[in-house]
Every structure is written in structure tokens, then in C-alpha cells.
């Protein structure tokens, strides 16, 4: 795409990077076929190519974003399906990140929108606050239809509808089931923010499997949210601070000894963590450390595929595997969990339109509930058409979005690996061991 930024504009590193990304786009439109919002809405401005054009106009003219531009950029899921499809290697992720940050700094959203976004950024990354908010949300759920009728309050209605009836007990300090007899190495397990509140069983399963493979694990003191939630809201300052805090926490842990990797069970976090080198590239103190640390980040499926798993107990379960966008498009690791599950003796099936997002996408299912709901229903339809015993994925957002719409149990891939290699059954199967031989 031809651009006409001034040399003054290009003196800004973020603008220069975006200009280089935009120039790579050759308008071919291949990406439109695999974009969930274009598939659903059929509007060119809700396609990757259309959004690239809108971002180019906005940045080139240093313009105040219009409500129309903001609407189309907000509707992007950041699912990165377009980056998998694009033959020209357009780095859409960093372009849309820049666009969101530009909008956040240069556009005054309506009051309700501002308040809701501030509330999300102030609650979700903090497990204690989130626990309280979900508890109150559960009590206030009957008010959801009322909020749905008030203009601008649809996200509040979506939050209330998603508040669970009850939460698992707050995670206690990490407990080892048994330190491996001969330790082959150690990993840092990343805790994150949302997952330990909603599904602490994911991280617990990973720790058990890791131990069973003869690897020790540790949680780094002082780490917190990866920053992705703030980042996708355009609040770059907050995401940079989250990255700095985590890099420092892991730097301190690495000073105690080397690790095989820094591992996460949330692929949405993994995509963000792997990008810390880029996020902190201009940080005078931490740029180099962030690059080194980003190279250590691995998804749980990535780590487990490198370890020697114990022999698996055969299973009669049919698993529908949902590849999270952050795993298949963000990290290009989509097939790994399927291979792991097959290695563990499960029959694994992949749904139609596997490349399409389930609509979770961080805070997207709260901020864009209508589109997210349609994508969620479409995804669940394809998954249930496989007639599975269980749906497995590797991201807390997807698990929550799919579980809210399906009667089929939804678990993490690692929970099934844990079960097959000697661990406890995932919660939905705890009273039913007949599936394991
Ligand atoms: S990130 Fe996803 S929703 Fe956004 S333009 Fe690309 S394919 Fe479409
Ligand atoms: S596939 Fe790539 S090059 Fe083609 S229009 Fe989309 S972003 Fe541009």
C-alpha cells in the first residue's frame, strides 16, 4: 500500500513501524476470507484490509479518530487469523496495537464506554478484585436484562450474564505433589490473573504433569497479569508497566538458577509474553533482558511436547479440540495440543471453521457482546457437531466462552494429559472413571 507520511511523522518509531507494516500490504484481500468479523458482517471496513486502510488514513493525517473508525477498529478481535492467511507477511498485530493506543490517546469515548473500559482495566488484572466483582456480579445477575435495555450498558449486561454461580476456592499457596526424585531441570510457571480465579485446576494440572516428567517448578515472586487486557484496550502505559514488573520478577528468579522455560497454560498470555522484547524495546534498563526472557516463554503444550511424558492410560473419550486463536495464529502452535492428546490415547477431532475465533478475545465478549455471542454460538455448533465427550482448549478465555454455551464439559488440554498420565480426572469427570481403561 502506498503511503505518504511526512519525515517528521516517521521520526516517531511507532509511526515508522506502522508505515513499514502498511506498505507491505498489497491489497490482495486473501485475509478477508478468514476474518471472523468480515465473515459475519460482510463489510469491507470490518475486514483486515479495510482496517489497514482506516488505520493508514488516521495515522497519516494525524487525524482525530472518527466514531466510524473507532467502531470498526473496536470490532477487530485481534484474533490474528489475518496474519496466518496473509501471503505478504503483514504484521497486523503491531499495527492494530498502535492504532488502539492512538485511539486511546486521541479520542474521547462516550462516558459509559470510558467508565466500563476503566472498570475492566481496574478489575480484571487483579485476582482479588476480580473475585469480589464476580461475587457481586452473580448476585446482580437478575438485573442483566435491565442493563441490556440501557444505551451503552450492554457490556454490563454481558458481564452479569457471564458471572458464574460460584467460584472455585481461592488458590492456596502452591503445593507440590512430590518433588521429582531425579530433577531434570526446572520451569517457572506463570500464574496470570483471570485463570487462577476461574479455573485454578488448569495450572494445578500443569504442575502435576511437569513433576511427573521429572521437572521441578517454581512461581516467581512479584509477577502479575501479563498486561494483555490493558494492551488490547489501548492502555499501553499499563501494559508496559505490567511487562516491566514481570521481567523484573523473572530476572530475580533466573538469578537463582537456569530454567527450561517460563510456561503458561493461557495461550492469550503466552502471545503477549512472547512479545515482551518488542513491547520493551525502547526501555533503557530492561530491553535486552526482556528479549532474553521472551525467548524463554513457552505454552504448556510446547513445554510438554519437549518432555518425556509417562506412558498414558488408554481412554475411550472423543475430544473436540478447539485451537485458541492466540495459539494457532498468535504463536503458530495450533496442531501441537492435538498431537499431545493423540499421544495420550485420546481420539481427537477438529471442528469445521477451526480458524475462526470463538468470540472471547480478552474483553471482546464483554465489550462487543453481540458479535461475540454470534461467534460463540457458531463455534459451539461446530464443536458439538463432532459429538464429543469433552471439548479441550488451551486458553481460559475460550474455555469460559465455550462453556457458557455448551452442555459438553470444557477442559484444558493439560488436564486431559494429566488424567491420562496418572493425575486426577478433570472436575466434570470426577465421579465417572469409566472412560479410562
Ligand atoms: S485480527 Fe481477526 S478480526 Fe481483526 S482484522 Fe484480523 S482476522 Fe479480522
Ligand atoms: S492478505 Fe495481507 S497483503 Fe493481502 S490484503 Fe490482507 S493484509 Fe494486505
Q: What would you note in describing this structure?
A:
The protein has 437 residues and is an alpha/beta fold. The protein has 4 domains: 7-106, Fumarate Reductase Iron-sulfur Protein, Chain B, domain 2 (Orthogonal Bundle), CATH 1.10.1060.10; 111-162, no CATH class; 185-304, Glutathione S-transferase Yfyf (Class Pi), Chain A, domain 2 (Up-down Bundle); 311-429, Rossmann fold. It has helices at residues 7-10, 13-24, 36-41, 48-60, 67-74, 81-85, 92-106, 111-123, 127-140, 144-149, 154-162, 194-198, 200-212, 228-232, 236-254, 267-273, 276-279, 287-294, 300-306, 325-330, 335-343, 364-367, 369-384, 396-403, 413-420; strands at residues 185-189, 215-218, 261-264, 297-299, 318-321, 347-349, 390-393, 410-412. Helix 2 packs across helix 7 (92-106) and helix 9 crosses helix 11. The model has no long low-confidence stretch (mean pLDDT 94). Bound molecules: iron/sulfur cluster (SF4) (2 copies). One iron/sulfur cluster is lined by residues 35-37, 48, 51, 76-82, 92.
Amino acid at each position: 500500500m502506498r503511503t505518504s507520511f511526512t519525515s517528521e511523522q516517521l521520526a516517531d518509531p511507532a509511526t515508522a513501524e506502522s508505515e513499514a507494516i502498511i506498505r507491505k500490504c498489497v491489497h490482495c484481500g486473501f485475509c478477508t476470507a478468514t476474518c471472523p468479523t468480515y465473515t459475519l458482517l460482510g463489510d469491507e471496513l470490518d475486514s483486515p484490509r479495510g482496517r489497514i486502510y482506516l488505520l493508514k488514513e488516521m495515522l497519516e493525517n494525524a487525524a482525530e479518530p472518527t466514531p466510524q473508525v473507532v467502531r470498526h477498529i473496536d470490532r477487530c478481535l485481534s484474533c490474528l487469523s489475518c496474519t496466518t492467511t496473509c501471503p505478504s507477511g503483514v504484521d497486523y498485530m503491531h499495527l492494530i496495537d498502535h492504532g488502539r493506543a492512538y485511539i486511546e490517546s486521541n479520542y474521547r469515548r462516550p462516558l459509559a464506554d470510558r467508565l466500563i473500559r476503566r472498570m475492566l482495566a481496574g478489575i480484571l488484572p487483579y485476582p482479588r478484585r476480580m473475585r469480589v466483582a464476580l461475587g457481586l456480579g452473580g448476585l446482580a445477575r437478575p438485573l442483566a436484562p435491565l442493563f441490556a435495555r440501557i444505551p451503552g450498558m450492554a457490556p454490563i449486561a454481558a458481564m452479569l450474564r457471564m458471572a458464574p454461580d460460584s467460584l472455585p476456592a481461592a488458590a492456596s499457596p502452591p503445593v507440590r505433589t512430590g518433588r521429582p526424585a531425579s530433577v531434570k531441570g526446572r520451569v517457572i510457571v506463570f500464574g496470570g490473573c483471570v485463570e487462577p480465579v476461574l479455573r485454578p485446576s488448569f495450572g494445578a494440572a500443569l504442575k502435576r504433569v511437569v513433576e511427573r516428567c521429572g521437572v521441578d517448578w517454581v512461581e516467581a515472586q512479584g509477577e502479575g497479569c501479563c498486561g494483555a487486557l490493558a494492551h488490547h484496550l489501548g492502555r499501553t502505559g499499563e501494559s508496559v508497566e505490567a511487562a516491566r514488573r514481570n521481567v523484573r520478577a523473572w530476572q530475580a528468579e533466573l538469578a537463582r538458577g537456569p530454567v527450561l522455560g517460563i510456561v503458561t497454560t493461557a495461550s492469550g498470555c503466552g502471545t503477549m509474553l512472547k512479545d515482551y522484547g518488542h513491547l520493551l524495546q525502547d526501555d533503557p534498563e530492561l530491553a535486552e533482558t526482556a528479549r532474553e526472557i521472551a525467548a524463554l516463554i513457552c505454552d504448556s503444550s510446547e513445554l510438554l511436547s519437549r518432555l518425556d511424558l509417562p506412558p498414558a492410560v488408554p481412554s475411550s473419550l472423543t475430544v473436540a479440540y478447539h485451537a485458541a486463536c492466540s495459539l494457532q495464529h498468535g504463536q503458530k502452535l495450533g496442531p501441537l495440543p492435538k498431537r499431545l492428546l493423540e499421544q495420550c490415547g485420546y481420539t481427537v477431532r477438529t471442528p469445521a471453521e477451526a480458524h475462526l475465533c470463538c468470540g472471547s478475545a480478552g474483553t471482546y465478549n464483554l465489550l462487543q457482546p453481540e458479535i461475540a455471542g454470534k461467534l460463540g454460538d457458531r463455534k459451539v455448533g461446530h464443536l458439538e457437531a463432532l459429538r464429543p465427550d469433552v471439548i479441550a482448549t488451551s486458553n481460559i478465555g475460550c474455555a469460559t466462552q465455550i462453556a457458557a454455551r455448551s452442555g459438553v464439559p470444557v477442559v484444558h488440554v493439560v488436564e486431559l494429559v494429566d488424567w491420562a498420565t496418572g493425575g486426577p480426572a478433570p472436575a466434570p469427570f470426577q465421579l465417572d472413571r469409566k472412560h479410562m481403561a
